[in-house]
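Q: I'm writing up a methods section and want to include an example of the input and output format. Could you take the sequence below and give the corresponding predicted structure tokens, formatted cleanly so I can copy it straight into the document?
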Amino acid sequence: MKESSTIDLKLEKEKAVKVYKNQEEASLYTANRIASIIKEKQIKGEHAIIGLATGATPKGVYQELVRMHRNEGLSFKNMISFNLDEYYPMMPVEEQSYVSFMKQQLFNHIDVPIHQIHIPDGTLSIEAIQAYCDLYEQKIQDFGGLDIQLLGIGRTGHIGFNEPGSDDVTKTRLVTLNDITREDASGDFGGKEKVPSQAITMGIQTITGAKEIILLALSKRKAEIIQKALEGHITPDVPATFLQKYKNVEYILDAEAASLLSNIKV
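A: Here is the clean output for your methods example:
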């Protein structure tokens, strides 16, 4: 494993922030945090309950976890995973589905049992969604809650698909996607008009119930929203600001994503 140069700082209310010089080092650290929990639980003979994210941001994390499995013998047999979200409607075989994403980036390359993987179902009828979401919540609780939740952040400040207007008591549910979110996804779908207008997502209460949370943000295009999320007022207009209330959150940034933070010079 490569050693990383990093700047550690504390924001108000003891929020831990680590700023790495590039995306690779930030991803390596994050992968190691997840791997350490899996290993700790293996020693105890327990399952590791891991909340996973999709999108461009965690790809480097998954690449490193796959490398650790192949080259270092890291086993995922004790991992039970819950993904944050899925587009709705969405067939799992579609290239843009998060089922396909997770298989391509991680699941097809490790030894996690398929029955221990949970991703919201984008094929449900509208009438079946609420009961399904309630069951998703119950499954997480039945396993004792999430040991760690990996998050990215959207340009609207969404975590999962909790768009502006979401409050911190929300649970897994069907939501309407913000136009900016759909615009950002348009490249994957061949146009904004082809991006689903809805998604099933864990709620903010679900996310913040995790024992540990890592918010990973990479690249200059995330700098503005990271500044708002970490230094702005807590508001439903920027859902990621709710994380400021919790001491179990670690913000992992590269230098570009951290470049607008007022209390650090990068």
